[in-house]
User: What shape does this take?
Amino acid sequence: MEIYDALVIGGGQSGLAAGYHLQRAGLRFLILEASDEATGSWKRYYDSLKLFSPARYSSLPGMRFPGPPERYPTRDEVVDYLHAYAEHFRLPIRTHAFVKRIERQGVNFIVHMNGQGTLTARSIIAATGAFSRPHLPQLEGQERYQGKILHSSSYQNPTAFKHQRVLVIGAGNSAVQIAVDLAQTARVTLTSRDPVRFRQQRIWGRDVHFWIRITGIDTWKRAFPSWNPGEIKKAEVLDTGVYQAALASGNPTYHALLERFTETGVQWEDGQADEFDTVIFATGFRPNFPYLAALGALDENGNALHTGGVSTTVPGLYYVGISGQRSHASATLRGSGADAAYVIRDLRRYCKRPVTTEARRCCDSLQPA
Ligand code: FAD
Assistant: This one.
């Protein structure tokens, strides 16, 4: 039976960055990707998406993002870049390999795939993304609303919403970008629980990522372990001025949080009501690691129990791509490489450790009853 040093679950940027470092470490590994290609979720994001970081700060390790470094690349350019990346490094990827369950057997992990049997490995890197399980909160009266409700992850472009009245709920990048995108052809209102907070994309002529890089803000988490960059990042919209100007012009309009849904729309806190054909929730995502449930790797909300991407409950289990995993940049293109390098340093030591009887016993005791 073939035993891999590592199996990487997920073939997006996180899985590819992990593959790059595993290859450099000379380890035997395979990337398992559920879909037909290793470009992650990018193809599913909305058509008008432009990166919030310039090309210069959007590279995975070992390969520069192509083209002029100061521009903000499009979604499709990222897809092309990921294709080229996997090809350039000849990363071993198995597509159509949906991982449904991982179990422990002695010191090894047994990975069960849909229709593709099982594989065995000493270690696992979970790289299935922080943005794949849409979060749809239940607001008051929502069940009575007769219009269409969807999550921002299903939004592609404004075509289907022409001349509609659309409400977008949320205060983050996606909420604002989608609201402005839609406002070209629809009557759009943006609403959020907390006010929308903008962060200037360019400061003294340089992109904010330049300043983040030279001040070292990315790595503050190491100095202040209780600081959670994932939380801070949540409600800030990076803006060159376009989005603020659009909101200031009233297209889209902004309204503070709604009181409740009605049958035809919403009622605001001041008692006024508005009608909407469609409501788009840009309300974020939740962790999505169902295949790890049997290992005791998750808390009661499905969050990974980890420090810096190293599982704190399951030896040999690692993560790349969790928001705030190690820094402000975690779960973004520019952060994946550093996080992958960090966990693979630990993984390498773990795989080199001789399998003693004691370790075997320790791992056996971690198996679920
Ligand atoms: P994903 O891209 O989600 O890839 C995970 C892969 O795992 C997928 O290919 C999926 O098919 C596979 N998978 C899932 N479950 C299984 C399973 N059980 N078995 C096998 N395979 C599985 N970041 C930036 O740097 N710049 C931006 O401008 C930017 N914009 C964003 C805009 C939006 C709307 C969103 C949601 C995120 C954005 N991000 C951005 C954040 C982040 O870079 C992306 O979400 C990126 O796709 C994350 O890459 P990933 O590899 O971690 O996850």
Notes: The CA atoms of residues 18 and 340 lie 5 Å apart. Confidence is low (pLDDT under 50) at residues 223-233, 361-369. The two ends are 25 Å apart (CA to CA). Residues 135-197+234-281 form a domain with the FAD/NAD(P)-binding domain fold (CATH 3.50.50.60).
